[in-house]
Amino acid sequence: MIPYPFGIGASCAVNQWYIIDCNSSTPYLPALNHLKVLGVNLENRTVTVRTPRITDCRNPVQDSSKIMGVDLGGSPFLFSNYNKFVFKGCGNAIMMMDNGSVVTACSTACHGGVTHELNDRDKCFGMGGCCETRVPYYFKSYSIHLSGLEEKGGACGSGFLADENHQENWFSVGQNTTSYDIPVSFLWTLTASDQITCCENTRRVMVDMFNDTALYTWECYNTWLPKVGNFYLTDGCKTKDDNGT
Predict the structure, then answer these.
(1) Which PANTHER family match (predicted)?
(2) CA-to-CA distance for 68 and 18, rounded, in angstroms?
């Protein structure tokens, strides 16, 4: 089920960015390079999609810098702080904004330059070729700089954002894989022109972005506990009894 403000087709979505189409029962966002949709969370105001992650180990270099992920400039979406920054490989990874400002960084230690695949996702803390760290801000785009890559491990590494709520989908994938999809969480924002009609309450929320900048979005919310239904619809507020549970 695709909840509003997203919808299948233009007549069911709040605007063109929120239109979802389907191909062989697979939902995707045509306005964002046809990214596959894994889910929409109304309370967190997030949509989780699959984004490509590419690593090339055939021509390794000691230092490299690459634009990663999807450029969300011009869209109502931001990379959310429900993502973690993950590095797999032997060396260092720095996540930066377009102006070169550092957002976060991660370093690993590998015995003899050889990485070992970790099956316990709680052990991605800098040993065995895997580390992760929180992402404290919202932003539109980013780049990743890799350095100090150890040659014995193939001098390859990969840094990427990953939705912490879908950790089981990316943790066990090795850094030597040339291409695969990673679940990433986008915060979706709404303006007054989007003409949403909440079932109970509307408020304007500030979103903290990098370099002490802010963006404002409208959100619907209700006081029902537990929160059920879709409070972005006029008749969307429900109680547990309304849902038959």
Answers:
(1) OSJNBA0016N04.9 PROTEIN
(2) 23
3-state SS assignment for residue 11 = helix
Query: How crowded is the C-beta side of 37, counted as CA atoms within 13 Å?
Result: 27
Token couple for 229? 């239904």
- The two structure tokens encoding residue 196: 């949403």
**3-state class percentages of the chain: helix first, strand second, coil last, to nearest 5:** 15, 45, 45
Q: How many CB atoms lie within 10 A of CB 232?
A: 22
> Cβ(83)–Cβ(119) under 8 Å?
no
| pLDDT-derived band at 63, boundaries 50, 70, 90 | low
DSSP label at residue 178: S
Query: To which H or E segment does residue 82 belong?
Result: none
Q: Which range, 26-30, 126-130, 165-169, has the best average confidence (pLDDT)? A: 26-30
Q: What are phi and psi of 44, to 5 degrees?
A: -85, -10
Comparing 84-88, 222-226, 234-238, the range with the smallest average pLDDT is 222-226
Q: How far, in Å, are 31, 49, 100, 124, 218 from residue 192 at the CA level?
A: 21, 25, 33, 42, 7
3-state secondary structure of 121: helix
Q: Are 86 and 193 in contact (CB under 8 A)?
A: no
**Which residue in 88, 73, 91 sits closest to 182, CA to CA?**
88
Cα distance between residue 207 and residue 186, in whole Å: 13
pTM tops 0.85: no
